[in-house]
Design goal:
Protein name: DUF541 domain-containing protein
Distance between the termini: 47 Å
Number of strands: 9
Strand content: 35-45%
InterPro entries: 26kDa_periplasmic_antigen, SIMPL/DUF541
Keywords: Signal
Helix content: 25-40%
Number of helices: 5
Largest sheet: 4 strands, antiparallel
Strand order of the largest sheet: 5-6-2-7
Number of domains: 2
CATH topology of the largest domain: Alpha-Beta Plaits
CATH class of the largest domain: Alpha Beta
Organism: Chitinophaga jiangningensis
Length: 234
């Protein structure tokens, strides 16, 4: 009988403790706020796509390998590491495929390259060293920064600081004091501004192209971070 009574007493005590804990949780004062931050940076990594294509010069075909060697040499001569030039895609077409001719002169190959640059001041020199007839198109495809991880960290810290400041003045407005942090959640981090890639049509010795590149160089990237936080109220 004593064992049963002790067991019942222990169960009652456990239930009372649980109820008290649950009650404390429901009455705990807290505030939930979001904080955001945004910094603007100048990119030092620009990705430039160059598409080369074979073509007929009289009755002779200018091979894609010839054009590729011209581009590779131009990149190295401009003082850019050769590793910065990579192949993106290879394709080809045949004008007389319907007639099923197998004349190699009629099959034209094309090759797309991606060139990583820190500035666009040498792009005219590079493209000018490649046979203009063999350049099908050029295009800026993206921007980034070599210090992006540092900028991401900085933006997240500022977002968290903004959340704390907001919680502080909101709690202070009702005569309360802000307590410690209870929860932090990243809502939207590593977000970049919508910088649309700008196409640049290559024209030998074109002043318009130089002007377009100058305009692109002035563009900036906006790195944004947002956090959700929960603070206690003293």
């Amino acid at each position: 009988m004593k064992k049963v009574m002790l067991l019942a007493a222990g169960l009652f005590l456990a239930m009372s403790t649980f109820a008290q804990t649950a009650n404390n949780k429901t009455t705990e004062k807290k505030i939930e706020v979001t904080g955001s931050a945004e910094i603007e940076i100048t990119p030092d990594e620009i990705y430039f796509n160059i598409s080369l294509k074979e073509y007929l010069k009289g009755k002779s075909k200018v091979e894609i390998t010839t054009l590729e060697k011209q581009l590779q040499k131009a990149v190295v001569d401009a003082g850019i590491p050769k590793e910065n030039l990579t192949v993106e895609n290879v394709s080809g077409y045949n004008y007389d495929y319907l007639n099923k001719k197998k004349n190699p002169q009629e099959f034209m190959a094309s090759k797309q390259f991606r060139l990583k640059l820190n500035k666009l001041d040498k792009i005219n020199i590079i493209l000018g060293a490649v046979d203009a007839e063999g350049i099908e198109s050029t295009r800026i495809t993206g921007y980034s920064s070599s210090k992006m991880e540092e900028y991401r960290k900085e933006t997240k810290i500022k977002a968290l600081q903004a959340a704390k400041a907001k919680a502080g003045y909101m709690v202070g407005a009702i005569g309360e004091q802000l307590g410690g942090i209870i929860e932090i959640q990243e809502i939207n981090t590593d977000s970049y501004s919508d910088v649309r890639p700008m196409a640049v049509n290559y024209m030998a010795k074109s002043a318009d192209m130089a002007g377009g590149i100058s305009d692109v160089e002035s563009k900036t990237i906006k790195v944004r971070a947002e956090v959700r936080t929960v603070f206690g109220i003293k």
